[in-house]
Specification:
Length: about 350
């Protein structure tokens, strides 16, 4: 019977016929017991009539709800009883039998119509208790056909000009070639309004076409993701494709941690797919210089010497002579609050 499954489905013909036979037998036996002269059998006959009727109702409901999924695939009916099925069945039978044997004698002094009404109320109440213990659930599923947007971020920082890709191509040329090869697909998606392109370097900006050459001096990946998070608020985003060399090179105030920015996007249930360009180690004549741990006093007094300390990390420059130049920014002529620093 359907009581053995959590999700209702149409019963096999043999099982359906078996339970239908039990229901008919209960109805017939209960009917004749109610007609016997021995009144002590009348409650048992009433219980059998009620049990047979409940089986008929259950079989009909199971067939209806089981067939409902065939006509409405987005619907599903399930039950999750509080106790096991065996205990639930025993509780149901116990409630109905207690009403059949214990309650009629208490209302025997009332008119027959009143007796039947009160007994029917008790049976209905017991049936509702049993149904609530099954915790039935009717679930409807609606498919949202609203298109989701694909966001593609491309790196336009000057670090993409390094030519360490196969065939001597630069990182930016490889990135451009990859997007050009898929331009047919992107054009279709763009016509449907489900794809957008953005460039990041110093700032994040929306573009229609990829720039010819990378021009930005910084790579603020964290700030680009943070700005993107603000711009996609309220939009349905399928995923984000982050393209670039994966190196965070930025200066204050654009120092957002890329990992923290990516963590915020992941909390919005939006996946980020990365496409990186560049060799894991510098090869050939490629040189990468990084100035780290810049330390100096924020306050310099008159006639005092300002000490500037830093560490220079060089990759791919073994055995080479390097020149480090310190540039001092001069204030504008109309800014009288600043003074030009002497070498």
């Amino acid at each position: 019977m359907f009581l053995l499954a959590e999700t209702l489905q149409p019963l096999p013909s043999r099982v359906l016929l078996g339970w239908a036979s039990v229901a008919v037998a209960g109805l017939v036996v209960g009917y004749y017991l109610r007609r016997f002269r021995w009144k002590f059998l009348h409650p048992l006959g009433l219980a059998l009539l009620f049990a047979g009727s409940m089986i008929v109702v259950a079989l009909s409901a199971n067939e209806f709800l089981g067939r409902l999924g065939s006509f409405i695939p987005s619907s599903a009916f399930s039950v999750s009883p509080i106790w096991s099925w065996e205990i639930t069945l025993l509780v149901a039978v116990g409630l109905w039998m207690s009403i059949a044997f214990l309650y009629p004698p208490r209302v025997a002094h009332l008119p027959r119509t009143t007796q039947r009404f009160l007994v029917a109320i008790r049976y209905i109440t017991a049936t509702l208790i049993v149904l609530m213990s099954l915790r039935p659930t009717l679930q409807w599923t609606r498919q949202d056909k609203e298109p989701s947007e694909l966001v593609i971020l491309t790196d336009i920082s000057r670090s993409m000009t390094i030519g360490d890709m196969p065939g001597g191509l630069s990182r930016y040329a490889t990135q451009s070639k990859l997007l050009t090869d898929a331009s047919t697909v992107f054009d279709k998606l763009r016509n449907q309004g489900v794809v957008s392109f953005k460039e990041y370097g110093v700032d994040l900006k929306s573009v229609e076409n990829l720039a010819d050459q990378p021009t930005d001096s910084l790579t603020a990946i964290g700030d680009a993701l943070k700005d993107l998070t603000r711009s996609i608020q309220g939009k349905k985003i399928a995923s984000i494709v982050l393209m670039g060399d994966g190196s965070q090179r930025s200066l204050p105030p654009r120092l957002e941690d890329p990992r923290q920015a990516a963590r915020v996007i992941s909390e919005l249930q939006i996946p980020i797919h990365t496409v990186t360009f560049g060799a894991s180690q510098l090869q050939g004549t490629t040189v990468d210089l990084m100035l780290e741990n810049l330390r100096t006093s924020p306050i310099v007094f008159v006639k005092n010497r300002a000490v500037l300390e830093s560490s220079l990390r060089a990759l791919g420059a073994a055995g080479r002579e390097l020149t480090v130049q310190l540039l001092i920014e001069k204030p504008s002529p109309d800014d009288s609050s600043k003074r030009t620093l002497q070498p």
